[in-house]
Design brief:
The protein is mainly alpha-helical and 537 residues long. The protein has a domain of 236 residues. It contains 19 helices and three strands. It has a three-stranded antiparallel beta sheet with strand order 1-2-3. The protein is globular.
Length: 537
Amino acid sequence: MTSQLVQSVDWLTIAPPVLTAAVALAVLVADLFVPPERKRLLGWTAIAGLTAALALLVPLRAGDRSTFCLTPDTRVTACSYTADHFTLVVQLLVLGGALLTALLSLDETRERLPASGKPSPREPLPAGEYWFLLLSSAAGAALLPASRDLATLVVALEVASLPAFALVGLRRGDRRSGEAALKFFLSSVTATAVTLLGASFVYAATGTLHLTEIAQRLDEVPGQLQTLAEAGVALTLVGFAFKTAAVPFHFWVPDTYVGAPLPVAAYLSVVGKAVGFTGLILVAVVAFPSYADVWGPALAVLAALTMTAGNVAALRQSSTRAWSAVRLLAWSSVAQAGYLLVPIAAAAYSSDDQIGATVAYALMYAVVNLGAFAVVVLVARARPRNRIEDYRGLYAASPAAALALAFFLLNLAGLPPGIIGLFAKVTVFSAAVDAGLGWLAVVMALNVVIALYYYLRWTALLFRTPEGAPEEAPGEVPAGARGEAPAAVPEGAGKGSAALHRPSAPVTLAIALTAAAGAVLSGYPQFALRFATTTLF
């Protein structure tokens, strides 16, 4: 019995990533002809393309659709691309995250004049290259959750990752940006090499690349290939652990976030993380369920180590250190990765659908973390060093921005009025308890308490009376070293106040959208869980 590839293509099924990639190419070509004063149109074109890609998810909700399938006789047994509910939820997350990143990036790709009216020494990001790279990465991220064979999965992973290296290092002449891009590149290349080696071992042992067929054939691997199959499973999971920034594969995160342009750091914290966790779910739960007794305990230990290391490192951040606000969010994202790993580990122990808890938590995290980064982008225009201390008295300078940031931080901490943050943590905690991982639930509870300190410390600082500017920390690099212009403080503003420039419409819209989404989900938190767990896979 021979198999053949069905040549007919369901264009609607593959429309979201294809449209995103097509817009990326259109923006790159248009950049050659658009005059410099109209480069902003490229950004709005990218935003329109991402909005259209999101709209194309609506007609796919009717039911599961697949294309690029292997068919023996007339019965479809394995497909390379499947748009099921899991795919659509993750595509909503990554395309929505890319859209919010695009809103935050509009000001980064055009020349700005400070209050003095003189040109700023800070060069804008090259518009054509930036929008092409962002859309290309988003296209790969949207392709990955639909991938149902190892070849497509690895290709999608690289399409999402390769443009991200360039995005991190796109600020030319910035030593810190170049160093961050190099660290990110080396760690990701290592992860890819390990993943490819693992995938080749799995293929050698099973003779197939399709995830569902791998799951069937791993139970039938002959004794002489058993060691090869086990090595392939282990290496593949380690490769994706790099992408999720799980400890001990997290070392690239803080320096990469600090060196990257702030919108790119926001993108990596949400979309980059979603890519890693999606791949981990697909290979562990779909392809390797017969090895659950191996990867279940391993992921549980990784979850405990990751949340603990992230929270402890966040506690150690000095509020007067340059870029400490971004570093704190970077370490916070590492800790959040630990929470996201818990339901995946629980899936190895329980027959119940635990993956929905990870997806629901990822949706909550994406909304509030992008919102926090949006406020950081706003404050960074006036305070380029972006110290936590620079947020002292933010409420006096901008009540709306301070209240929004406080809401996002409280959500990340899991405290009211951020009900969705509390609900998401309780959901993950319940997944661990239901799976019999009581020790992991205890570790998570302790880490949630530890995290309260640094989230509440930052939140309280927003409402304190502005004081004099803090002394420079030893060894701090002046703003000009990164190509950033020192912010002009309006007359009458206290030295310690976070005086803000007038927020641009795109940044205001990004903050408003994330705050509104967080408020709606806090009012109806069950919606996130029901939406994420409906007929997963």
